[in-house]
Every structure is written in C-alpha cells, then in structure tokens.
Amino acid sequence: MRMPLIAGNWKMFKTRSAAAEFAAAFLQNYTASDVEVAILAPFTNLADLVQAFKSSGVKIGAQNMHFADEGAYTGEISPLMLKDLNIDYCIIGHSERRQHFAETDEVVNQKLKAAFRHGINPILCVGEVRSERETGQASAVVTSQLNKALTDIKAREAAGLTVAYEPVWAIGTGLTATPEQAGEMCAVIRQILIDLYGEETADQIRILYGGSVKPDNATELLNQYEIDGALVGGASLDPVNFLNIVQF
After folding, report:
1. Count of CB atoms situated within 10 Å of the CB of 63
2. Taking the domains of the chain in order of start, what are their residue ranges?
3. pLDDT tens-digit map of 158-201
4. pTM over cut 0.85
5. CATH of 5-9+14-246, one of 3.40.50.10190, 3.20.20.70, 1.10.3720.10, 3.10.180.10
6. Could you give the CA distance from residue 245 to residue 194 in angstroms, rounded to a whole number?
C-alpha cells in the first residue's frame, strides 16, 4: 500500500521570516499520521525549514535544480548543494519551468538522472494544456512526456519516483479537473509505468494530482483509486488550509 503524499509547492513566495511564521503555525496543530507531508520551498528557505521541521516528520524539498554537479552555470543550484542541505525531494519538470524557462523533455530527463544519482527523490510533473485537452490529445501528450522523461531510467531508480499529474489549464486558474478526469489520467500514467517497468515497480510509484487543489475539493480528488496524494500550490501557502488538505 502506497503512503499518500501531500506536497506543498510554495513557488516564488515567502521570505525567511514568512516561512518561519508558517512553520510555527503549522506545527502548532500538526500531528504526524499515515500521510507523508512535504514542503517544496524557494532555495532561500530550505536550510531554515529543514531545521524547523527536523523532529516533525515533515519532509522538505526544492522546486528545481540543475543537472550538473557544479560548473559555470550562473544562478543555478546543483544537486550536490541540495544534498548538502539534507532535503528529501525536488520538483522536476513543472509546467512553469517548461513554459517560462524553456525546459525540454530532454532537460527533464537529465535532471531526473541527476536526482537519482544523488539520492534526491524527484517529483516529476506532467500534464497537458487546455487546447490539448479539448482536442483529445491529453493522454498522448502525457504519454510522450513520461516516455521522454524516463528515457534510460532503470527500474531500481524509478521505484523512488513520484509522478504529479498537473493539467496546465488547472494550475493557478481556479479551474480543477473533475475527480473523474484526474483519476482517469492517473490510471493512464499507472499503465505507462507498468509498460515501462512492470507491475511490481510501477506499484511503488506514487501518482499525485495537482491543479487548484483546495480544502473543499481535496477529499473527492484524493479518494480516486489511482491518486496517491496531491501537489498543492496556492492553498499550501496558508498553514490552516494546507493542514486541512493534509487531514483529508
């Protein structure tokens, strides 16, 4: 049985002081349970959050990283640097990285390999834009993204993967895939993983849903059979809202 994962993606929000306030408020009411919780924060907050949550069981992760260990890549953060901070997770291939920073499937593949090489658990994001959904291409797009991202990734590595299905048209728009749409696509993803790695490995991989997840829709979404948790955006910025989702 896969343990559900509720991961909060803070995106480019929260100064160090704001992050400290969140941690204090969240921990005041948080009790560890059979749901894993992770906070994926800006680089400037990672060291502080690792310290703040060190005894809570809450995992801390980054939102991006470079695929090289070091080099002349001004402004980038390497997997070695993240590992040195004792973070657990890193988002790879978020649609905002693809859209605004021209990340290709090939770059995503390189980053996945780097994450596995350094023992960082990657959360691989896949999802279609609205026009692709409306023209019936959603499954083909997600299948292509997964196959390219996982090129030359071995089964022993893939067992530590988390996949987040985030329809791009539902990110930050207030629109949400219906529970049925989300469940159907997560089932497609599960089958792709089975085709690539076999049932035993595929069964170890968690599949999350992301895209305008809020306290009032989390339970219905997370009760879908193939959905193992959520990648939460805006609602994760408020400790009360995030805690309500964690306690779905």
Report:
1. 22
2. 5-9+14-246
3. 999 999 999 988 887 877 788 899 999 999 999 999 999 999 99
4. yes
5. 3.20.20.70
6. 29
Q: Which of 36, 132, 157, 166 is catalytic?
A: 166
How far is Cα of residue 146 from the mean position of the Cα atoms in its chain?
Answer: 14
Q: Which two tokens stand for residue 73?
A: 């890549």
> Catalytic annotation on 166?
yes
| Per-position DSSP letters for 141-204, written without gaps between them | HHHHHHHHHTTT--HHHHTT-EEEE--GGGSSSS----HHHHHHHHHHHHHHHHHHH-HHHHTT
Catalytic-role residue among 36, 94, 103, 132: 94
Active site residue 21: no
pLDDT digits (tens, 9 = 90+) for 39-86: 999 999 999 999 999 999 999 999 999 999 999 999 999 999 999 999
Nearest to 132, CA basis, from 124, 123, 140 = 140
